[in-house]
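Crash report, auto-generated. Payload:
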Amino acid sequence: MEDNASLTFEGWGYRHASRRHFAVRGLNLAIKPGQRVLLLGASGIGKSTILEGAAGLLGAEDADGVDGNGVGTGAEDSDGGVTEGRILVDGVPVRRARGRVGLVLQDPDAQAVFQRLGDNVAFGPENLGVPREEIWRRVHESLDAVGLDGVELHRSIMHVSGGQQQRIALAGALAMRPGVLLLDEPTANLDPDGVTQIVGAVKRVLDSHHSTMVLVEHRAGPWIDLIDRVVVLGLESADQAAARVEGTGSEGDIDRTGFRRTVVVADGTPDEIFRDPSIDFAALGIWVPERYRRPEDEIRRIHTPGEPDTDPAVGTGETLLSCRDLAIGRNGTAIAQHINLDFAAGQITALVGANGAGKSTLSLTLAGLLNPVGGAVVAAPALAEGAEGDSPFAWKSTELASRISYVFQNPEHQFAKGSVLEEVMVAPLRCGMSHEEAESRARELLKRFSLSQYANANPYTLSGGEKRRLTVASALAAAPRVLILDEPTFGQDRRTWMQIVTLINTLRADGVSIIVVTHDRELVTALGARLVELVPDRAEGEWDSDVVRVSEVNARTEPVRQSSRSPLLASINPVYRLISAFLLSIPLLFTLDWVSATVALGIEFVALLAIGFSPWRVVKSTWPIWVGAPTSALAVLLYGKAGGSTWWQWGLIHVTDRSAELAIATAIRILAIGIPAIITVLGIDATDLADAFSQILHLPDRFVYGGLAGLRLFSVLQDDWAALTASRRSRGLGDENKFKAFGPQAFALLVLSVRRSTTLATAMEARGFGGDGPRSHARVSVVRPRDRAFLVVCLVIPTVALVAAGFAGTFSFMGGGA
Amino acid sequence: MSTANTVAKPNLKWRVVDIAVASVIGVASALIYWGVAIVTYGPWEAMDILVPGLPGLFNGLWLFAGPLAAIIVRKPGAAIYAEVVAGVLEALMGNMWGGAETFLIALVQGVLAEIAFLVFAYRKWNLPVTILSGALSGLGCWAYSFFTHLQAIDLGGSYGVMYLVTTVISGVVFAGVLMWFLYVAIAKTGALDKFASGREVRNA
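Recovered output after restart:
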């Protein structure tokens, strides 16, 4: 099957919101159908912007920024950006060629919209309005194309490896039948096995579909056999004849003084480009593929001025931290046991192993942020001196910050202050240093890490590489003897990579014991680090190293999740379950009396028992209202409507016959209302509910599925919260009063959530979501006679209760008068 | 903040990014609401005995999703949408106020929070309007309580009045003032550059 399209940039440019300079400007580039292009250029040259533009994601949805022929008018769009020129797919402006271009982004986790794996693949075709049978045919075909045939479609996207997630994202793009496939660093977040999976999957797709492909990737080595054209981008300035290609300014954002337009500085086959001696690939931040490497491109042990003579794999011999028969795990279950390791001053240790093998668990345990499941992490006297005991997990946060520091993979998990300078001063101040001393130490570190010019900037506004340097500077500010870095070179181009590696090497002179969690072989080579590999039971290690055995990654089949403990309830349509919850509870609000409440509660317990909930199970599932009901009852008892004889009066408190009766009625009624309202909806699958909202209540799909995508981030945000808590402990902020600590941490969570949702919106639009065209539905929300019958039964229960109150003469409308 | 005042011609059409951000603000808020519920349970009863209606001061901590989403996204219905997403999530998890009911209370609070922005035709985005939104949301919260689990207390009596005053104050402080400055702080991180609200702060 041959399906490919041409891609043409005509004087195209885009300026992002709140930026002074265009990211890309005046770009002219024509890509023929079926070409496989590797796009290269320094970090910050605008490669991702080009791909987003080509995917039709820039220029916003309003007509202001782009005219009918897809030509940018130079006016600001509703995203605050400005478009110039146009991009054509087979001669059609890209924003009108929905579904012709498929984009795969860097972070696999950010591209999942649905919980179930198959639904994510079906999402693109749904947005294009493809008929249902055809959607599922395409889902199977696409999963087959990426080598995932036979995978369970209901399997949770959270339960597959990063490499598999990324293959599912690729399948999701393929299911739209795109003529052009755009890949934006699709392997940057993956371990070596994941990289092999993705390259293999893309190769299969290209071999069968002959799609046009544009790839952006710093490490092109594994891809090189697939590439037939390499395009190197540079900048042309007003004041210079020759185009500039290197980054010269602050890294991450190359110097755009006098920037006039984006130009193609080299264009040819891989052989022509990579054998061209006039191109300085190191300055471009590009890793030259292994086969083309010249002697100067090789990564060797690096050396920095003032480094000690000792071997970094050994250190000075002074042990600072040890594991004694250590068992590690997150929920009390050990994933690895009997670990015995020593970490010495001046030593660099690399913890390696496949994704999910437990590298982070081990490093967090070493950092005193996770409790060992068994055995102990022991701080040597030299490290523990002055602290309480020798177990880092038992230390106070301030004791920890000045001894062992942890640099998180995501810098935004770590920021606590509004300026770069304050950020670095956090730990020294918490550890008791005077303000002047802390500031001079911070300024010294900023200078050393080339961050002085940003002292007053907001940490969040720095570029990726700068953020990482800042987190290392902040971690070092309290002079810890042990520094642990989680994936410090993740997703960095060759230039920022070199800066980070150099930085780590200079720390040896301070006698710091450094532990890096990584799967970057070149990092290990450059640092001359000692290797410790975590290897699943029965698997072979991939590295020549010390091996720590860990439990096997769970690979069993996953049963289909039931949406309720009761099979009957699970079979009811989600919207009908929601409505039934209201029918059960709302009528009871008409009267406040103990008879109606008790009758309703009694029937409910019997009915729930009949459909499979034992009373004990009901109490367990609804415990929060059993805690909440007494609170309201107490308020009613003390301050409720008075009547009859007075039991006790003191100030405004007035306990009477009537207030006591009302308090009892209030408590029972809260249970009678709350129990069915919780049980009927508890366990509803969010995707099924969204389908029902869309198909039965006819709510707009944009809002329903936008909201659903947001709900999926809930578990991601929970992990963020845990990481924020740990990072605050590691930085000396963990001993603070809970209320005082809550605000800053909630702020950090909200910033993260806004960023995550912005990425999510891009990923959803890349699947064609949000267009004006009709959508189809891959899943059917069925309504059967039993759903309607269920509603009737649910209305009968409160009705019986109200009638009973009427006969008993206790009916009291809305609690009666004052 | 004189910068964030009037917009000549507001663009009221929802973009995908508006929907995504509003819903995730709802989700993150639900996570925070849940934490607040656990932390405040103890002090609540003690304060209620000490001064009737005093714990209403906590209520604003469950009201902020609506005003925050509205001032960031600036689209009609943003406050309702964010509160309802938070409510649906809470309902699916099960919590102290009882499953499906959270959906209703979220709707009431969201609608009230929305009214503040609606009466200014979605043209005024400043601290006073945000405070009004927080106050109205507090009013909704108070009214809902007396319509449901506090029916047995005279809403015009001293407890009712005190509970109204404390809840509205809490709404003003937490869902109004605090959210305005929180929005400004988030905008300063550059995370809101795709939004008119974010660019107003950054380009000021």
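Post-recovery validation: Chain A has four domains: 7-100+226-296, 101-177+685-783, 319-556, 567-684+786-808.
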